[in-house]
């Protein structure tokens, strides 16, 4: 009898574990891209790039290729929170009166304001709880690098975004290969050498990144970065000290001459594609992330570079687009 009881308990435990592991589709249609609002699988998304939850259990999605931020209730009801579905632009406004261009990263601050990295516009946008959208930092349509007052600063394809407990905003400025910070209305460079890609550890701007994508804080306010093109995870201490958390990177020169140029498309490595979105013919034809070798300018928004999940990913600007691992913070590949 005891043996039977033990077997039944083990069986019940196994069923419980199986139930906990069940994966269901909350919203959207598998392998179907679209721009429909609705409930559950009646809704449709197009390359959702990041997701974050508010304190009420609602989810907000950076619907990148629909140029909008969508809202999903706990019951799976999908609506457009801000932006116009399928209409790229940079207009400020309320709700669907505003416009985005391939938003990629999302993060809430402690006051319930939602910040979005508007990748195609190279700006950081703020969305209040009422849906009022404004440009928080950067100049719409002006990619580049400039620190200073938020309204005059420049970014280059910002992707991941994270908000520290004190309200400081951190940005994975992917095209500039560095981590930027916004505090007190001023943009500065926290870590990485602007415009110089590499893998060096160091303090502040003495360190190097190669197309950083995702950001996430731990409980001790260390900032972790998915350094996409170095295939590493980097750790940045509060004093700006950058170390390679895992694993040790190969040299940037070596990485351009390895299998990355011929790696299968499913790796979604921008170094294996030329500026037309097609596989590069040879390592010599590959441009460093964020540049066009022949012309020395940035890739145009919405260049197709490879697949992600169940669909082909299209992106705005150079480097791989990110999907947030910790949804309060940001995007990783």
Describe what this molecule looks like in 3D.
By secondary structure, the protein is mainly beta. Helix content is 7%, strand content 33%. It is built from 2 helices and 22 strands. A 5-stranded antiparallel β-sheet has the order 1-5-4-3-2, with no helix packed on it. Strand 19 and strand 20 form a beta hairpin. The longest helix is centred in the N-terminal third of the chain and has 19 residues. The radius of gyration is 21 Å and the shape is globular. The N and C termini lie far apart (52 Å). The N terminus and C terminus are likely disordered.
Shape: globular
Mean pLDDT level = 78
Strand tally = 22
Helix-strand category: mainly beta
Order of helices and strands: HEEEEEEEEEEEEEEEEEEEEHEE
Low-confidence stretches: 1-15, 255-333
Largest pleated sheet = 5 strands, antiparallel
How large is the share of residues in beta strands? 25-35%
The helix content, as a percent range, equals under 10%
- From the alpha carbons, calculate the radius of gyration and give it in angstroms: 21 Å
How many helices? The count is 2
Q: How do the strands of the widest beta sheet line up side by side?
A: 1-5-4-3-2
Distance between the termini: 52 Å
């Amino acid at each position: 009898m005891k043996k039977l009881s033990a077997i039944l308990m083990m069986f019940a435990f196994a069923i419980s574990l199986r139930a906990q592991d069940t994966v269901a589709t909350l919203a959207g249609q598998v392998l179907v891209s679209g721009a429909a609002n609705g409930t559950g699988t009646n809704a449709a998304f197009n390359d959702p790039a990041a997701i974050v939850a508010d304190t009420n259990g609602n989810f907000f999605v950076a619907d990148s290729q629909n140029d909008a931020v969508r809202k999903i209730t706990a019951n799976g009801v999908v609506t457009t929170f801000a932006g116009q579905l399928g209409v790229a632009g940079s207009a400020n406004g309320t709700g669907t009166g505003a416009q985005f261009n391939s938003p990629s990263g999302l993060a809430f601050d402690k006051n319930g304001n939602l910040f979005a990295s508007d990748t195609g516009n190279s700006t950081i946008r703020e969305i209040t709880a009422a849906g009022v959208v404004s440009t928080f930092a950067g100049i719409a349509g002006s990619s580049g690098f400039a620190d200073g007052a938020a309204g005059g600063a420049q970014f280059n394809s910002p992707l991941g975004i994270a908000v520290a407990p004190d309200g400081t905003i951190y940005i994975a400025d992917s095209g500039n290969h560095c981590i930027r910070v916004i505090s007190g209305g001023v943009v500065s460079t926290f870590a990485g050498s602007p415009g110089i890609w590499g893998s060096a550890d160091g303090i502040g701007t003495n360190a190097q990144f190669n197309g950083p994508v995702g950001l996430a804080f731990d409980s001790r306010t260390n900032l972790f970065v998915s350094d996409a093109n170095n295939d590493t995870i980097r750790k940045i201490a509060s004093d700006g000290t950058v170390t390679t958390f895992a694993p040790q990177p190969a040299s940037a020169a070596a990485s351009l001459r390895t299998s990355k140029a011929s790696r299968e498309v499913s790796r979604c490595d921008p170094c294996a594609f030329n500026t037309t979105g097609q596989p590069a013919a040879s390592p010599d034809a590959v441009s460093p992330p964020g540049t066009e070798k022949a012309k020395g300018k940035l890739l145009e928004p919405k260049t197709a570079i490879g697949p992600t999940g169940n669909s082909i990913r299209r992106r705005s600007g150079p480097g791989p687009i990110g999907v947030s691992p910790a949804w309060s913070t940001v995007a990783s590949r």
